[in-house]
């Protein structure tokens, strides 16, 4: 879906809207004309969040709109209100926050690749400057949602590679990939093992952009295009939405596009292990022992704990290049969902300053993040008697922490590292968050990166 369908910079005719909190309604009501006051009363407009009042002119045509923001959350208000506005082009009032202007489009998003939308977009009239500020956000989130929503049959490792290459070309970035046996030649054994049973060959995708002298920031995303569970096959209910198991990669692709559009002062490195965790005669097995990129041996306890295996090779590679900051995103465990539910992204890091800054950025962007512990005592849950560690263990507890501790074995401890265990999916529609693929933790990290490495060219 295209983000710019919802915005215009020129229009013959547009309808102004005013966002008023309950308090503002109380203060400003006496300044309205009697006709306007009556119209608000007839429509019982109390400025509750998302309330809408339509005011017509003498000819009965729509003249202006009032949108209630309740206690003042204009982004939530717009996300609710946009659905009840008649078709047309609208001009926001000056007080509207950029989050609210973004919510205008985010709320109207539909995944329309296979079923055409019936409702016409409500458009927002903005000046060039404001549009320039918000469009990268909307485009990144739409890209992320589209990637996740696309079924695995049309979003396998090769299609993900094509899309990343196209993004790279658009911004003059370098794109590289190691495909199939090249993974073995270049020492990415776990990515190969997990993906080798699939018809669409496994690969590691790489995108590099920016001045080599700028601080290096590396983003890694779990790109399991479909997670059947491998030979330890998932139950049907658990498998149903596993097209979204490349949700981490989708965050990284959206974020990479955003960083390049915003021209942040970083040297950006992206790594995406893109595989399908399939079954077949080539499939890796429970009990197999993998020798990982960094030399550690891992006993495969369960082929469904595949995300940590492919990430391990990618993270080890990332650390060899000593980035200033390393962040990974992954739909890694069901346990993280049990811990924080479907709407909150679980954050793991040993770096307190980084954690605080990310939590703050998440709050600011309405992209909730919660920190979970890297409790070292649980590392023994991954002990193996015949390998350095196992990819899962017998304990039914603390699964998100043990997965994070597994990843930590492949990280250079001198590098600031944050790991997100995310849902990447709205299980039901909420204002501004339609059911299906979703950007999670991506806006928080975008905001954090912007605060640290803002563009020097503006
Ligand atoms: N992709 C799943 C995790 C997942 C499930 C994320 C549901 C979001 C929603 C992952 O590969 C997986 O299957 N993990 C297992 C690990 C277990 C075998 C140690 C899990 O969480 O059950
Ligand atoms: Zn799995
Ligand atoms: Zn998975």
Describe this structure in words.
The chain has helices at residues 22-28, 34-42, 74-81, 98-108, 128-149, 157-170, 181-185, 189-195, 236-239, 247-262, 307-320, 334-340, 352-365, 399-408, 442-452, and strands spanning 7-8, 15-20, 52-56, 62-68, 89-91, 123-125, 174-179, 203-209, 216-221, 223-227, 267-277, 289-291, 297-299, 325-330, 345-348, 369-371, 389-390, 417-421, 425-426, 436-437. Strand 15 (345-348), helix 13 (352-365) and strand 16 (369-371) form a beta-alpha-beta unit. Strands 7, 8, 9, 10, 11, 14, 15, 16 and 18 form a 9-stranded mixed β-sheet that branches. The chain has a 6-stranded mixed β-sheet with strand order 1-6-5-2-4-3, sandwiched between helices. The chain has 458 residues and is an alpha/beta fold. It is 35% helix and 20% strand. It is built from 15 helices and 20 strands. The structure holds ligand BES and zinc ion (ZN) (2 copies). One zinc ion (ZN) is lined by residues 227, 229, 304, 306.
């Amino acid at each position: 879906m295209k983000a710019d369908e919802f915005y215009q910079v020129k229009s013959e005719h547009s309808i102004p809207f005013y966002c008023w909190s309950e308090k503002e309604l109380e203060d400003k009501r006496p300044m309205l004309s009697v006709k306007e006051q009556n119209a608000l009363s007839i429509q019982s407009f109390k400025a509750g969040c998302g309330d809408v009042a339509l005011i017509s002119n003498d000819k009965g045509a729509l003249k202006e709109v009032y949108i209630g923001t309740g206690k003042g959350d204009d982004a939530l208000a717009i996300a609710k209100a946009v659905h009840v506005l008649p078709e047309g082009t609208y001009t926001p009032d000056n007080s509207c926050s950029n989050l609210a202007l973004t919510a205008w489009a985010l709320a109207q998003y539909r995944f329309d690749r296979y079923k055409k939308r019936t409702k016409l977009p409500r458009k927002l009239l903005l000046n060039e400057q404001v549009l320039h500020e918000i469009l990268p956000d909307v485009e990144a989130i739409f890209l992320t949602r589209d990637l996740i929503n696309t079924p695995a049959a049309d979003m396998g490792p090769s299609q993900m590679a094509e899309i990343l290459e196209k993004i790279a070309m658009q911004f003059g970035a370098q794109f590289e990939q190691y495909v199939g046996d090249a993974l073995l030649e270049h020492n990415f054994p776990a990515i190969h093992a997990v993906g080798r049973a699939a018809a669409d060959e496994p690969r590691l995708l790489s995108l590099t952009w920016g001045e080599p002298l700028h601080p290096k920031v590396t983003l890694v995303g779990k790109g399991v295009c479909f997670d059947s569970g491998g030979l330890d096959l998932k139950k049907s209910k658990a498998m149903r939405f596993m097209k979204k198991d490349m949700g981490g990669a989708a965050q990284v692709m959206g974020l990479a596009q955003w960083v390049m559009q915003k021209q942040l002062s970083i040297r950006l490195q992206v790594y995406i292990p893109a595989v399908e965790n399939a079954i077949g005669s080539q499939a890796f097995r429970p009990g197999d022992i993998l020798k990982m990129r960094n030399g550690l041996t891992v006993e495969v306890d369960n082929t469904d704990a595949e995300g940590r295996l492919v990430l391990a090779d990618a993270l080890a590679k990332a650390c060899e290049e000593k980035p200033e900051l390393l962040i990974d995103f992954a739909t890694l465990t069901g346990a993280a969902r049990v811990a924080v539910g479907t709407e909150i992204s679980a954050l793991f890091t040993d770096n307190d300053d980084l954690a605080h800054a990310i939590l703050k950025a998440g709050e600011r962007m309405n992209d909730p993040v919660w920190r979970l512990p890297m409790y070292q005592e649980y590392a023994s849950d991954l002990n193996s008697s015949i390998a350095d560690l196992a990819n899962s263990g017998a304990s039914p507890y603390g699964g998100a922490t043990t997965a994070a501790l597994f990843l930590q074995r492949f990280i250079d401890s001198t590098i600031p590292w944050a790991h997100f265990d995310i849902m990447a999916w709205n299980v039901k529609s909420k204002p501004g968050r339609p059911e299906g693929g979703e950007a999670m933790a991506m806006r928080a990290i975008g905001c954090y990166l912007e605060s640290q490495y803002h563009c020097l060219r503006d």
